[in-house]
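Build the 3D complex.
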Amino acid sequence: MLSYTIQRLLQAIPVLLLTSLLIFVGLRLAPGDPADFLAGPNATPAQIEIVRHQLGLDQNYAAQYYIWIDAVLHGNLGKSLINGLPVSQLLLDRMAATLQLAASGFIASTMLGILLGLISGLWPGTIIDRIVTFFSALGISMPVFWSGMLLIYLFGVEFRLFPVAGRVAFSQDPLAALKSLALPTLALAIGNAPIVARFLRDGIQDNRRAEHVRTAVAKGLPRWQITRDYVVRNSLIPVVTAAGAKLGNLIGGTALVEIVFSWPGIGSLLVDSMGNRDYGVVQAALLFAVLGFLFSNLLVDLLYGYLDPRVRHVQSA
Amino acid sequence: MSSPRKDRAIRDLGFWIAVGILGFVAVISLAAPVLPIYDYTAMHPQRLAKPSAEFWMGTDQYGRDILSRVVWGMRTSVGVAGLAVIGAAVLGVPLGLVSAVRGGGIDVAVMRFLDALLAFPSLLLAIGVSAITGPGAFSTAIALSIVGIPQMARIVRGSAMVEARHLYIDAARVIGASTARIMVGHILRNIMGPICVQATLFFAIGVLTEAGLSFIGLGVQVPLSSLGSMLKEARAYFTIAPIYAIAPGVVITVIVFALNVAADGLRDRSDPRG
Amino acid sequence: MRTAGAKPASARPSDLVVDGLSVSYRTPAGPRPVVIDVSFSVGAGEALGIVGESGSGKSTAVTAAIGLLDSEMAHVTATRSTFGGTDLLSGGPDMLGTRIGVVFQNPLVALNPVLTVGRQITDHMRYHLRLDASAARKRAASLLKEVGIADAERRLDSYPHEFSGGMLQRATIAMALACDPDLLVADEPTTALDATVQAEVVDLVLSLRTSRNLGLIWITHDLGLLQRVADRVAVMYAGRIVETGPAGIVLNKPSHPYSQGLLAAVNSLWHGDSERFDTIPGTPPRDLSVIRGCAFLPRCPRAGERCAAERPELIDTGRAAGHRGACWHMTREAST
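Done.
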């Protein structure tokens, strides 16, 4: 198990490097002069030159890249144009909020998806299956920010059950924190649960016909036990990867949900700073987002390895 | 419990309804300039009016007719997504084919690069590319294309490799430089099914992603408007003029829903039967 | 806990009797017959071999008879299918797992990959015998020892993919015997194994049969294997039994032209020169519903007019007790 973990960590490094390279190159390709951007709209030509020298932009690209990576590894991500705060500070402040939302969205999507998938899978062709399938298809067709808006209107304004914007930290007031988390999480779940549900449903259908189920019948086990131990159990394991495979969706969705609900996370930071042309923040936030994405992928992979004994043993063999 | 025959009939019906809806959308989008609707930029004196006989969906905060804005927004959204699909196909299909047929070092290099791109969540990738290409409808289409190329290329490569395996034994006996061209042509014809399915699915992703980008402010810019940018503006007026925020969302949902159903139907048709 | 030694003669009846069994699959194109009017029986402690090519219906017939087929996929009818007098087809499979144990062809696929082998041996044991976890585990460990798996305790906690093919099939046999059944049904249990391992598994089953006084049904396409294993043999072709009787006769001097063809093919493979591998020309029929007359007609060296018009029923050959064949032109010896 340990060797599997290390293997996966090592595999992630080249991807990370490649990604940082892409971000770096991408930014250099952007129209305009980075030093001009990073110095701010009111800088004089002399100031721009100073910034250019400070940032090492007068050196060749390879040196620049090295300087940037070196800075990143030392925790120095530059400063924001707008308020001059160190970017790393901004990111840290907001990271907790985004992690919270993303994690709760993931858990809610997976749980709701499993519930819907079980219903659909165990009673296929029935009315309830058709209803579930229909609403699943609807869920992934709705833009996540629109579902957010609808939820705000429905639960926040009409029925006044939940707050419509902002975030309350758990440290302040757990109950209010949960309430502020509720609608954004639901918006994410509506968009992502159907994917999990569909996957589980298909998995159950496949496993039903599997040979090991026939063996279980030949052993005289009761139907419910066969369904539990030989069908559902086998189908749940790949669900973890399915849920994880769509992490990209979830992260993208998180950014949009943050905006709709004024949730102070990295996603809304990214978008705000793009609008403000605060490229230092954009660069760092993108890198951070990708890092988080890769890390959560790794976690999902490890979880899958833990759950499926075949993977565990193949990797360590 | 229902029979497989009833299932199939329902799915067929669903497929054709979806195709009908998409056809309708296409026609309306193309015909928008000549449709008997208001000019979507024209500002009328009535601001945020309720739906009435004069303005079927009411007006927005500038007095513009919402219905015509929805129609033109749909035209823009569909147009941008459509361009993206074409772009992704035009670049992704050859890339996947070359990778599959050539194999070896090229294949490995291409796949690694595509994997790195696929590693990005699509919205983030689109945002990232938009940062380079700048905002606006056309550059959004480019950004979406770039998001779509790895997806297309991967599917094409996978299917092409399966097809090529079938051909391999025959091709081994054919001599001549035209072999490659024959192989590619044959493979291409046989993988049209999966390509169409993927293109349809990507269309749906394109519509949703464009809406997201425009909602953020990075997509289409004024004076053009897409369904996503409409929702951005409508947000503030939800309580006063709900239809302003609901209508564009409904249109997006219907289009994406229909695209997903159509893709499922295409998959059924191309897989076991074809 | 069963000890070595024969079962007392006054044990409960454990004979399998199947009469007039027919199975047809429900397909979108309509019902497709795969087994037609098959009858066989296995007395207590007796070993029946069922042999035939792929598609002859041999596996389907037996699995249907013991009530293992999914009624959604297949339509099963029989005049009678009982074990020890109790009906096997009327919805309640009480016999499966308790008095009838089944071993399938490919153990890696037949077992659940995400459950330990120990768990799969004990779960039905605990359900049927109401044992607690530790008692079940002890019993499972001794079963593994009985089938020749060393290090049984540790093996209980291993997963199927950690076993070699032969070992895993032994474990499957242990699983089938967990609740002390009287009849063991083995559906091509050695087909997926290497030749050396095959022999070991055959040895194992034979010794278990003796020590536990098991009835046995062994389904295979391998004639040679049944020489060692079976008391009686039934040969199936195109969904019907075409010859049945004592193993010595059916496997060495069969009467039906199909059985003779099979035997000639096996013999030429092992003893003939490699130039002349005798095969039966042609292939078995796919669609059994359109056959008029004898199904073997297109491939039969002795085909005559009567064969096309009238399908031969199983009749006594007169050569030995219980030896029957379905042919209008049966001979005493194998034809050259």
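The first helix of chain B runs from residue 4 to 31.
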